[in-house]
Amino acid sequence: MTLPDSSWYLPAAGAFLGLLALGAAWAWYRRRDRLDLILRKIAWRRLADVVIPDDVDGEIHLDLVLLTAKGILVLEVRRATGTLFWGDQLEYWTLLDGRRRTRIRNPLPGLQAKRHAVHALAPRVPVSGRVLLLGTVSISGATPPGVVSAEELLAEFPPHGRKPVPETLQSAWADLSARARPLA
Q1: How far is CA 37 from CA 26, 30, 42, 55, 157, in A?
Q2: Any bridge partners for residue 102, and if so which?
Q3: pLDDT digits (tens), the chain, 184 positions
Q4: N or C: where does the chain have the smaller number of CB atoms within 10 Å of the terminal CB?
């Protein structure tokens, strides 16, 4: 009895694994690309992963700071799936996704401190803070204050439509940018 020629197994397995890797890379790119597209629509400029002075003689890290038509937006991005259980006074929030349970630190107190630090550097313009939940998330009970989906963010901060940046916003952004330094 002769065995069938198995020389094709290794190239076929390599091609299959290559397709799996390509699919995973494409899914990652589409998730990243969606956030980038949203940010390009609503913001003229952005700073990512920077450190600025805070109110108490220290420094504070900012995930994203955006120059929008409504002023400066401090944005925290959380990628998540599942049902979010939260509370204002809780240190950690819980995400349940089937059998998987994930804890995330309550972003609201930190977001407030970040918003105040930005406002101290740009006091002449409105400064807002939001937590953007990317992914399929349902929220148990009411929505936490300042927590938005991508659709809600786009509705609240309309696209700038390539209009020129107003001088007051441009000046405040220049002041903020001058004090920001990349996260080391």
Answers
A1: 16, 10, 9, 32, 14
A2: 95
A3: 665 666 666 676 667 676 776 665 555 555 557 899 999 999 999 999 999 998 777 999 999 999 999 999 999 999 988 999 998 889 999 999 988 999 989 999 999 999 999 999 999 999 999 999 998 888 888 989 999 999 999 999 988 888 899 999 999 999 999 999 998 7
A4: N
